Amino acid sequence: MPITTDTDLKVIALCMSDDGVPQTVGDRMRIADELVGGLLKNNVKPRAFRAGMVDG
Question: What is the number of domains present in the chain?
């Protein structure tokens, strides 16, 4: 994520993992929480990213 830090770049995050498309809402929310937490931890401003759910 260093490329997005301190820039005006936009980030699109898909709520899926290395295991593929999550099967439950709970799994999707867990992944979304990890994604958002990682972006915030790396100083990516909330207005710079969007998270989307992938419908399997």
Answer: 1
User: Phi and psi for 54 in degrees, rounded to 5?
Assistant: -95, 125
What tokens does 45 get? 């401003």
Q: pLDDT tens, 5-46?
A: 667 777 777 888 888 888 998 998 898 888 888 888 887 777
- Rg over alpha carbons for the chain, rounded to the nearest Å, is 12
Q: Which domain holds residue 22?
A: 2-52
Cβ-based neighbour number of residue 10 at 10 Å: 11
What is the dihedral angle through the alpha carbons of 3, 19, 24, 38, rounded to the nearest 10 degrees?
-20
Higher pLDDT, 49 or 52: 49
Return phi, psi of residue 25, to 5°: -60, -40
